[in-house]
Amino acid sequence: MKINAQSIATFANKMRSLVRKLAAFVATLILALMFATLPAKASDHQDTTFLATRLTAADLTDLYVFESPTNPNNVVLAMNFDPLIVSGENRPFDPDVLYQFKIDNTGDSVEDVVLQFKVNGSSHQTVTLRGPYRPRIVGTESALVPATWTGRLNEVFTTNNGIKVFVGCRKDPFFFDLEQFFKIIPDRNYIVQPNPNPPFTVLTFRPPGQAQDTLAPFNIHSIVVELPKSYLGKGKIGAWMTTSVRTPRLRNGNFAQIERLAVPALNELFMDFRAHNNSNLQTPTRDANNQSQFIRGFVNAIGRPQGIADAVISVAIPDVVQADLSKSNGSYFGTQLGNNFGGRRPKDDVIDVTTSVVFGNAVTGITAGQIPGLTSDNVGPNDANFLPNFPYLGNPL
Ligand SMILES: [Ca+2]
Ligand SMILES: [Ca+2]
Ligand SMILES: [Ca+2]
Ligand SMILES: [Ca+2]
Q1: Residue 1: its pLDDT value, please?
Q2: What is the CA angle 81-241-161, rounded to 5?
Q3: Which ligand does the CA of 138 lie closest to?
Q4: pTM for this predicted structure
Q5: b/e for 234-246, b at 16 or more Cβ within 10 A?
Q6: How far apart are CA 373 and CA 379, in angstroms?
């Protein structure tokens, strides 16, 4: 082999490239080990392995819809995503993900109004709000609607049509003893896939004092908007949220939906882990067929009367958070049951509402087959999770 300056340069370049690849591999390995050793954490937090490990920025965790505590003419929408941010971690936003609130105001579970958010750039990031507008196309494919305003991350800004916006880091307001839930239904934990232990070998949440809010030590990324109720409709609305990305499959540059979420605890409790991705890729119009069978199957499997499944389906299918803009003072499922604003407020103990329906006697007249140890996770709202004023979600840790 002839050695000259050029071949030495080529060799040096190859070595540099190898070292770079090795460094990237080691970084990936460290990341993978971190994930593997993290205590198991999820609900719609980490609802598929792809979202949990490959695109956490698109992993939606909670949707809140509530009447503004400071102005009864306004409604607040809050979307949480990119979970399990540790204190001091400065995780950038992903400029490739399109975040949307979708609002149906005609009762057909097809969106009539959308608010779209996209972060710009990878350093000195800003965020652009598009809408609220009627979308040109509906369903799992999305096209951008015209831009309304661009502002800075982690700062409250107000558009010229009076929409207050915050996009940034918050303390995760969701409260749940998820660690114990995973002992009760191991299948819901992505880390133990594809061979989870059988469910219900553990039949109790931890007692008060021992129960832990698994999300308490974590921050999250949030999009919070406050806007006049009239921008969304007049009476009853259904709200859900989606994340989407551009894909070569859509040559027109449109965005394809990869995750969706509305009613909390619905997929996590009733639906097999492997079914989550399919539900993420669908529209609420399909829920009556798809989601209902899981609810019926689950209620049957725990030996409770089908009246429980009927009750859950009647309030939670289609999977949209219902609110009544013509009413005030929301309570969880209050549009369907309480003749009030409904929606979901950050302090609502949605886990206890759900578990008391499924395992307890919250459905009037149905007492057969109760499982008393599962009617509450014994974790309640934590004051540090909330603020009295916009953006209403607590400051990050
Ligand atoms: Ca999710
Ligand atoms: Ca509609
Ligand atoms: Ca989901
Ligand atoms: Ca609770």
Answers
A1: 39
A2: 100
A3: 2
A4: 0.89
A5: eebbbbbbbbbbe
A6: 13
